[in-house]
Design brief:
This protein is mostly helical. The protein is built from seven helices and two strands; from the N terminus they run αααααββαα. It has a two-stranded antiparallel ribbon with strand order 1-2. Helix 1 runs parallel beside helix 3 and helix 3 runs antiparallel to helix 6. It is a multi-pass membrane protein. Keywords: Membrane, Transmembrane, Transmembrane helix. Belongs to the anoctamin family.
């Protein structure tokens, strides 16, 4: 079962992709989500039946959609900041073209010249208060009409364009680096839970617990010391007949002296794991090497 997150994803897209154009969008989205959560809580408590809980590993394909949208929003905001604002042109003018290192003369630097005699037929303005105007100014980086390359992009235009593209690349890499740092500092799964998973998956290891539900920080490998509780250990052989129970491998049969005339049936029990881990006692030094026997 996949939960539909279409509406939250659409909201996240609008907020993240165009936050540079409307910086108050995250605030309005937060207020909308708070109100919607409280209304949904009241609806679930008072008007709907209790929903059936379903366990899910993650949010499915929506995680990849949100991740891709977040990366794409970084590029969009970088282009919006660099190409729709005067942030980059101001820096370029201050550090490359200003004689005093200040913003004095920035407006005049961003205006180009145009000769009114170069208007095409029918495109000149009709209402002109002063007929003696020969040159007007407009906002662009182009060569003046008296230049050999009139009305072409000037040197300042290419400098500003290069600075804008450099800002896009720098901004994108900086945000990606910060996101990696945050992801490294705040992992998706806490470190304690990862360690518990590793301890549970370690084969042949016993972890003694102190309090209930507590796993020690440095468990010892206790393969040789792992013994089942007393109630789960098989009964030890004795002089009497073997008791019937869960460790008997043969069904109950006639015993000696019964009416069937059969002898006592042998009783077998499951071998204990500790029998195969007992240490073999050392043999005497004066004993012949060929006469040694292996204890079973």
């Amino acid at each position: 079962m996949t939960v539909s997150l279409f509406s939250p994803v659409i909201q996240f897209g609008f907020v993240s992709l165009f936050v540079a154009s409307f910086p108050l969008a995250p605030l309005f989205a937060l207020l909308n989500n708070v109100i919607e959560i409280r209304l949904d809580a009241k609806k679930f408590v008072t008007e709907l039946r209790r929903p059936v809980a379903v366990r899910a590993k993650d949010i499915g394909i929506w995680y990849n959609i949100l991740s891709g949208m977040g990366k794409f929003s970084v590029i969009i905001n970088a282009f919006v900041i660099s190409f729709t604002s005067d942030f980059i042109p101001r820096l370029v003018y201050q550090y490359m073209f200003s004689e005093t290192g200040t913003m004095h003369g920035f407006i005049d630097h961003t205006l180009s010249y145009f000769n009114v005699s170069n208007f095409k037929h029918g495109t000149a303005p009709l209402n002109i208060e002063q007929a003696d105007i020969t040159v007007c100014r407009y906002k662009d980086y182009r060569e003046p009409p008296w230049s050999p390359d009139a009305y072409t992009f000037s040197k300042q235009y290419w400098c500003v364009l290069a600075a804008r593209l450099a800002f896009v690349i720098l901004f994108q890499n900086l945000v990606m680096f910060l996101s990696l740092v945050v992801a490294w500092g705040i992992p998706d799964v806490p470190k304690t839970i990862v360690e518990q998973f590793k301890r549970e998956e370690a084969p042949g290891r016993c972890f003694p617990t102190g309090r209930k539900g507590e796993i020690p920080a440095h468990p010892e490998p206790l393969l040789q010391g792992c013994h089942p509780p007393a109630e789960h250990q098989p009964p030890q052989p004795g002089p009497g007949p073997a008791p019937l129970g869960r460790y008997s491998t043969l069904p109950p049969g006639p015993t000696q002296g019964s009416g069937d005339g059969g002898g006592p049936r042998a009783r077998c029990r499951a071998a204990s794991f500790s029998q195969f881990t007992r240490s073999i006692p050392p043999s005497p030094k004066n004993e012949n090497e060929n006469s040694r026997h292996t204890a079973v």
